[in-house]
Amino acid sequence: MADDNNTVVEYSKADLAKASPAPTVTISSSGLNHSDGLAFDPSGDLSVANYQSNAVEFTKAQLAKSGSPSPLVTISYIGACSLAFDPSGDLWVGGAESLGSTVVEFAKAQLAKSGSPTPRVSISSQSLDEPCRPTFDSSGDMWASNYLGGSVVEFAKAQLARSGSPAPRVTIFTNSMSSPGDVALDSAGDLWVPNAGTNAIFEFAKTELAKSGLPTPAKTIAGPATGLNWPWALAIEP
Hints:
Blueprint: E1 2-3, E2 7-10, E3 25-28, E4 35-40, E5 46-50, E6 54-58, E7 73-76, E8 82-85, E9 91-94, E10 102-106, E11 121-124, E12 135-136, E13 142-146, E14 151-155, E15 170-172, E16 184-185, E17 191-195, E18 200-204, E19 219-222
Antiparallel strand pairs: 1-2, 2-3, 4-5, 5-6, 6-7, 8-9, 9-10, 10-11, 12-13, 13-14, 14-15, 16-17, 17-18, 18-19
């Protein structure tokens, strides 16, 4: 978890059962500044977005104990906010006002050393209006929320191979979707969407995601007992 105190913290699985767990690991670093998005690459290294500033990487070994390690790599990019790795280990960035209707990709090779690389791929679309953190299925297809447009959209892996303004292959709406945030896919391929505008979380079954439309959510989590207040981001436990 990242916070505004320029730290990232880890809670063990066992401690998450407690009401007030203490962090297992706390990482404080001069490389952290208004930390926002977090993403683990396939090797277990952690990238952290410093809001609209840069992205920094800490190795799996650096995360093994509390301390103040220096980032192994710093990628300067003004649009950094929400981060996600695709199955190939390439890094995608979205979710910042400065990016507008765009998500960008840095190739794995561009992340090997600090610098200010130019994104290898830039995807712009009217269906991506302040897109939040994307998520990828096992085939490399990408889902992202259209925050201001009240929808979620999917681009096929082939559409992401080069810069451009492709039309989404699939667009999912519901009558009650408002301000969707960071989306996530579970192991069954179902899509989960936090819906900040109505304090709800929707689940869409994989079978409903093959074509555009207004499917009925397979599950809706909402109501006072949930404790939801402007739900924005979620993650699915492996």
